[in-house]
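As the next step, I selected for study one protein, both as residues and as discrete backbone shape codes, as given directly below:
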Amino acid sequence: MMKYELIIYWSEADNSFIAEVPELPGCAADGETYSDALHNVQTVMQEWLETARELGRPIPQPKGKLAYA
């Protein structure tokens, strides 16, 4: 399970939902529906991480925004 922050929003210019992963530079996907964008970005995240491993590039740790005491 990937624990990276996702931002999903509607883009009028693209006429689709856009899903971005701010912690993974350049990692984004789109879809006709919110669910499509989520599914597509999960695939792109896996590919991003696999490529980074293959190339020996650093992989950012998920930041996690909330902490409960």
Summary: The helical segments are 34-55. The two ends are 23 Å apart (CA to CA). The chain has one domain: 7-55.
